[in-house]
Design a protein that fits this description.
By secondary structure, the chain is an all-beta fold. The protein is built from no helices and five strands. It is globular, with a radius of gyration of 13 Å.
Length: about 80
């Protein structure tokens, strides 16, 4: 079983940056819930998505955020 992942409904900030040689979005939540997360930009211009790996860097879960959806898709 992997490390639990906090899902938080709190305000925060984000910024478009480069991470690991790719365009990414850095999300930093306010307060003590959750943790700062790098989301890699993927998809296409008409169907963009952000994805991040949580848990073990070699075997963690990939979460994908898609435009126009309020849920997070995890495998």
């Amino acid at each position: 079983m992997g490390t639990p992942i906090d899902v938080c409904d709190v305000p925060g900030t984000w910024s478009a940056e480069e991470w690991g040689g790719r365009d990414a979005v850095f999300v930093c939540l306010d307060g003590t819930c959750g943790r700062a997360t790098w989301w890699t930009i993927g998809g296409t211009e008409s169907d963009p998505e952000l994805f991040a790996r949580f848990g073990d860097p070699d075997a963690g879960e990939v979460w994908i955020l898609k435009r126009g959806r309020a849920d997070v898709n995890a495998p």
